[in-house]
Each structure stands twice: as structure tokens, then as C-alpha cells.
Write a structure and sequence with these properties.
Blueprint: H1 3-12, E1 17-26, E2 36-40, E3 43-46, H2 51-65, E4 73-79, E5 91-99, H3 104-110, E6 116-121, H4 125-134, E7 139-145, E8 159-163, E9 179-182, H5 187-203, E10 209-212, H6 216-228, H7 233-236, E11 239-240, H8 253-266
Parallel strand pairs: 6-7, 6-9, 7-8, 9-10, 10-11
Antiparallel strand pairs: 1-2, 1-5, 2-3, 4-5
Helix pairs in contact: 4-8
Length: 270
């Protein structure tokens, strides 16, 4: 379940609230059409962009929570420049509607998650650090390892663990369009996963990205072994190794995790 949808579900089990949705934007605005925020008496879930617009929307939503009006919707117009002093300069229309626990099935269908599928092979130090980073970003993470005991007992809402032995057997079941990150505890497992990804690309061509942790020397060795398995230079060019955005040289797990997460975010910009 997407992170913010899971948070919304938890909140609705304790209290009703007001859903604030961006229904139109003229000119510049802090968030796109469809962006949403759920307002409760003492908490918030998600954001419509912050700033004075969000401050005003929260105040309006909480006034509705405390009012006797519990049905229907309200749409307000906000001129960001003259009315709110925000330099975006556009006009945003926000819809306000009461929501309760019984609305959750419909809300799960309505609210966009924009989450992209990521398959993370490896539960070592970098894998754990990367899960921590990706848990705050718009990704749905399938965390895969051949050692079931390495997974924490509690995982973020947008992360599911998957025990697979042999680990590369999980490649066939990955969702179409997935980004694959390979960082297992052994080079032998890494090689098996890379080979499985290349086979899938040859047959289906539906993986968005395959990245392998390691040095240029590691990749040169892998290339020779994969060529011996029958993969062409063109096929091998699909693999990214090393992974992470250029210019970040730190080797700490948390630093690598940030660099890799940034690389995934860049994929939709190309």
C-alpha cells in the first residue's frame, strides 16, 4: 500500500476528517492537479504544497470538521499572488469533502499514488539504508533476499519483503516497468540476478532500469562472464554499473542510498 494511503487508513480508524484535493491550476501552482491532503483535528496526511495556501486550506478544513455540515463538497478559489502573497502567481481551486472510515475503499481507487515499482535484491547495510530512503519517496519496493532472517520485523508501508531461494528466481515475477537494484551479499548471487534480468529483457523488454552495485572492475569481470553465457554487448549496455548519480563519492551506506535514490528519481526526467 502506498505510504500516504496507509497513513490515511490509520488516521481514519480513529477520526473522520476532510480531504482537500487540487482540482485545477491556472498558471503556476505549488502542486499538480490531483494532489491531496487529509486534514484531521490534530494531524495531517500528505501535502498540497505547503506555504500560505496550505495554511489557509488547513484552517478551512478544520472549520468544516467542526461544523454541522457533513455532506457534499466545497470548492474554493485561491489566487496565490494577490490573495496569499505567494510568488507562484497562479490560481488554484481546492475541493473540500468530508471523509470517514467507510470511504476508504473508494479513496484507495481515487487517490493517485504515483508510486513506481522497485525491486531491491540484497538486505545488507546498503540495502537497509536504501529501504529507509525509498520509504519516504514515491516508490513501491519489493525487497528480495535469499536469507529470510535479514528482514526487519516491521517494514514501511510501501515496502514488502520477499524471501527467494534461489534469489534470481524472483526476477520472473517482477512487475512490468520495475527498476531493479542488485546488491546481494555475494558476487555469485549478483551475477545470477543480472543474468536473469537480461534474459527477461531479451524475452519481454519490460524492465525500466537494472543497476548493479560495484566498481568498474567488478562490472568488467561480470561482462566477460555474461558474454560467455551468450549475452551481446548491446544487451549488456542495458546494465548500469556502478550505480548512483555522478559526483557523490562517499562510500557510507547512507550516502550510497541517497545517490541511488536520486538516480531513480532522474529516470522520469529523461
Amino acid at each position: 500500500m502506498p505510504r500516504y494511503t496507509a497513513e490515511l487508513w490509520k488516521q481514519l480508524q480513529h477520526a473522520s476528517g476532510v480531504l482537500v484535493t487540487v482540482v485545477s491550476v491556472e498558471g503556476s501552482g505549488p502542486r499538480e492537479v490531483g494532489a491531496w491532503m487529509a486534514v484531521f483535528p490534530h494531524s495531517l496526511v500528505n501535502t498540497i504544497g505547503g506555504g500560505h495556501l496550505e495554511f489557509q486550506a488547513i484552517a478551512e478544513a478544520r472549520s468544516l470538521i467542526g461544523s454541522s455540515r457533513q455532506e457534499g463538497t466545497l470548492v474554493n478559489r485561491y489566487a496565490l499572488g494577490p490573495a496569499l502573497g505567494q510568488c507562484c502567481g497562479g490560481v488554484v481551486h481546492l475541493k473540500f469533502e468530508h471523509i470517514a472510515q467507510t470511504d476508504m475503499p473508494l479513496l484507495q481507487q481515487r487517490l493517485p499514488s504515483h508510486a513506481k515499482p522497485v525491486a531491491l535484491f540484497g538486505g545488507g547495510h546498503v540495502g537497509h539504508a536504501l529501504v529507509n530512503v525509498l520509504s519516504t519517496l514515491p516508490f513501491e519496493v519489493q525487497w528480495i533476499d535469499s536469507r529470510n532472517e535479514i528482514f526487519p520485523s516491521e517494514l514501511p508501508a510501501n515496502v514488502v519483503s520477499d524471501y527467494s531461494d534461489p534469489v534470481h528466481a524472483a526476477v520472473d515475477g517482477l512487475p512490468s516497468g520495475a527498476c531493479v537494484l542488485i546488491m546481494s551479499f555475494s558476487h555469485a548471487e549478483d551475477l545470477d540476478v543480472v543474468a536473469a534480468c537480461l534474459k527477461r529483457q531479451r524475452l519481454q523488454g519490460d524492465l525500466k532500469f537494472v543497476g548493479l552495485i560495484g566498481s568498474k572492475t567488478k562490472w568488467a569481470t561480470f561482462q566477460h562472464r555474461l558474454e560467455a553465457k551468450g549475452f551481446s554487448a548491446q544487451e549488456l549496455a542495458f546494465i548500469t554499473c556502478p550505480i548512483g548519480v555522478e559526483g557523490i563519492t562517499g562510500k557510507e551506506p547512507e550516502v550510497i542510498a541517497v545517490a541511488v535514490a536520486a538516480q531513480l528519481l532522474q529516470l522520469d526526467q529523461k
